[in-house]
Specification:
Alpha-Beta Plaits, 2 domains, alpha+beta, 6 helices, 235 residues
């Protein structure tokens, strides 16, 4: 763009849309209590956080009986949960596959409000999330590669280096087609390496497949990088 159209642009490494989820059932009992002279803030939420069993949606459910929390405050709890899922506690990426159930709580006659219950729910979510075996999810791409048969070994080697999982291979008279699940992060720079490994005769395409837990080393690196960025902002 700079060379052909003379357009100023900011370049950098592509960003991966990571996600966050939990792997354990964790109970919580959180109270938000603030007093500033006038009317304060008070909200107590009790319940549990757990995986939904799939990584396609989040779920909020209220099982409060006896009217310990008013209906309008439960609606605020739902909004607090949805807001918390937009920025996960680990990397501030969106949360997937997480269920939050509120089954008890308490209110104050004058200090309770919808905002108090929304904030209390967000605080309870963040605290419970970090105790519920949190993991970072990475997008896996369904990758299809076509190349002459003589380069099959080279391509399998490239995918193995990227921890790709080969799903299917079709071998024709001259060319073969290989299908694999590969992490998006691991496919950066693959195009140039594929050309080099196949003398420019290989082609590939990718489409999103699903999310899967990232390797532990990648998770540690991402968390360390995120914490460093937060520390820089605080200076």
């Amino acid at each position: 763009m700079r060379r052909e159209y003379r357009v100023d642009c900011v370049t950098g490494q592509p960003r991966v849309a990571y996600r966050e989820t939990v792997t354990k059932h964790v109970e919580f009992d959180h109270t938000l209590k603030k007093q500033t002279g006038g009317a304060g803030d008070y909200a107590r939420v009790v319940g549990y956080l757990e995986p939904t069993g799939n990584l396609t949606e989040n779920k909020f459910e209220q099982q409060v009986t006896g009217g310990s929390i008013d209906e309008k405050f439960l609606f605020a709890c739902d909004k607090g949960f949805q807001a918390a899922c937009e920025k996960g506690p680990m990397l501030q990426h969106k949360v997937l596959g997480t269920s939050m159930v509120i089954n008890d709580g308490a209110t104050h006659m004058t200090d309770s409000s919808e905002m108090a219950f929304k904030n209390a729910t967000q605080q309870a979510f963040r605290k419970a999330f970090l105790q519920a075996g949190p993991v970072v999810l990475e997008p896996l791409m369904k990758t299809t590669i076509t190349a002459p048969n003589e380069f099959q070994g080279n391509i399998v080697g490239l995918l193995n280096k990227r921890n790709g999982v080969i799903l299917d291979t079709e071998i024709g008279p001259e060319d073969f087609t290989l299908t694999a699940d590969c992490s998006l992060h691991g496919m950066f720079g693959f195009s140039s390496q594929l050309r080099a490994a196949t003398q420019g005769k290989g082609e590939f395409g990718m489409e999103f497949s699903h999310y899967s837990p990232a390797p532990m080393q990648i998770q540690k690196e991402l968390i360390a990088k995120h914490e460093k960025a937060l520390a820089e902002k605080r200076k």
